[in-house]
Amino acid sequence: MNITARRDNKVIRSIQERDRYLEDRLPALHQATESGPIAVYGAGKHTAHLFEHFGALLPAVAFVLDDNPEAWGQLIEGVRICDPGTARPEEVTAVVVSSDAAEAVLAARAQEWVGQIEEPARRPSVCRLYDGCEFAYEKRVRKGQRKRRHHKLGPFYGAHRLEPTFNALYDEGLESADVGDNEWRRARFYNLINLLKLTAGLDGFTAEAGCFRGQSSYLICRTRAEQEAGDPFDGSTHVIVDSFEGLSEPTQPDGSFSAKLYEAGAFANTSVEHVRGALRAFPGVRIHKGWIPAVLGELEDVPYRFVHVDVDLYEPVKDCLEYFYARLVAGGVIVVDDHGPVPNGSYPGCAIACQEFSARVGVPFAPLSAGNAVFVKRG
User: Fold this and answer.
1) For residue range 277-312, what is the model confidence (pLDDT) as tens digits?
2) What is the phi-psi region of residue 273: left when phi exceeds 0, alpha when psi lies from -120 to 50, beta otherwise?
3) Is 306 helix (H, G, I), strand (E, B) or coil?
4) Measured between alpha carbons, how far is 268 from 247 in angstroms, rounded to an integer?
5) Angle 164-177/215-227 helices, nearest 10 degrees?
6) What's the rounded Cα separation, in Å, for the pair 300 and 316?
7) pLDDT single digits (tens) 313-325
8) Beta strands 373-376 and 328-336: pairing type?
9) Nearest in space to 195 (alpha carbons), one of 321, 368, 379
10) Which domains does the chain have, with CATH numbers?
């Protein structure tokens, strides 16, 4: 059964109009899926709104699926967010795609997820709430409303929203690495790229410890290619280290959330070959596969001007800071991805490693509101 045979060809121009549409749409969904629990695909703002305002109209929700490992194990209105790679489609009768702007993309991922069941007749149906709808949200609001909205969005309503050049580059990176998006990462990577630009003209390599599927290294390489246009950049002075097997085993400072990610095999959905493909425009990139700190011993002893540390946990963050800061040129920058605050506070070991390194070496650092932490090597 496909619940989405209905196509409304409707233009929705506001959140209020979308909510009225859902009030009409959800009872039919409930009736069509009353034979058992459902899954919801997508753990973004749309799902939080759906659960908060329309929970009574939804069938029983077994779990929420999301492609972002940072969300796994968290709860939305008491419902756990799960990794599509480990959740079982046999446990639900239908999958509701929960997004407006990205519905088509998530629907394709939902179809892939239910496709794990070989016999088509036994697969859960996939429901697109807005099939045939077009969204044209009005952007004009009254002055007083605008102020309240900005305050509510807090630190993630950042300057990156005003820079179409960055957003276009960021979206390129998403496509090249074939990775899902979240608002927090976009804000952090906006900081990342602007901090990289501060090191223009300095000698030294760039590096990334913990690349996952290659998006952030793509952004670094593309930015360097633009900065160094007079001398075509092939990636040969950019270094990547990653296990390509997921997180290392957490230790006591890392807390319970990291332990759950480790047990679930988070961030293992990658490979050297995948990252090579994502960075195919930069064939010279030096990729080293292995666990930190051992893999750091394989690197050529070179100076660095910019390093991105995205390894999440106490021990590897500590080891990376020790290794790369000693090789950072004067004016060079290290950006640590998961210092905090929330939602990145899920990685307390990362913050502890930054604080301990700062105290031990006598080097100040700056935690940023989007979650990065920044170290600058003084001359």
Assistant:
1) 999 999 999 999 999 999 999 999 999 999 999 999
2) alpha
3) strand
4) 8
5) 130
6) 19
7) 999 999 999 999 9
8) antiparallel
9) 368
10) 3-135 (3.40.50.720), 155-376 (3.40.50.150)
